[in-house]
Amino acid sequence: MIVLGIDPSLTATGIAVLETNDVPGEEKLIAWNVIRTTHEDGDDVRCRRVALVVYDYAVQLQVEAVGIETQFSSGKNRQVGIRLGRLRGAVQQQLAQRFPPSQIIEVNPSQRLTALGIRQKYETRELKRLAVEAVQRRYGLSINHNAADAVGIALVADRIYRRGPLPLQSKMRLRK
Hints:
Distance between the termini: 29 Å
Shape: globular
Mean pLDDT: 89
Helix content: 40-55%
């Protein structure tokens, strides 16, 4: 299965595409990138550009499921949260042309960190460094933190798409 992970940002959106199978830890990272936009462009232009590039990756690489990180915003700057929400909406709207809602999975930051084997007890700068190290250990590649986060998002999306959310997984019983 081919899964696209998206770490949305107005300046540097990380994307990663994994080819997965039924054995966790044996997936292959087949593509990654950081979509950069400039402050000179308005938010509408930035949102449209990111959405179109993400959609092109999904089509070209025959993606079967997509994970997109849910919005993280603190009480410090609500305007940033609103702008990121617009970006996520633009990306999801573009992807909705190709994918039904069940194939677009929302991933929260703690799920992403857990998928990369990181505990949340660190400051932001340290979390970024640890994400890069986790991807380097797992795949032997050196990529930046935006793409590393997208890898974690793709890992979670694969698990949720195949097996359902964790509460659903824990209620499953094996047939005797």
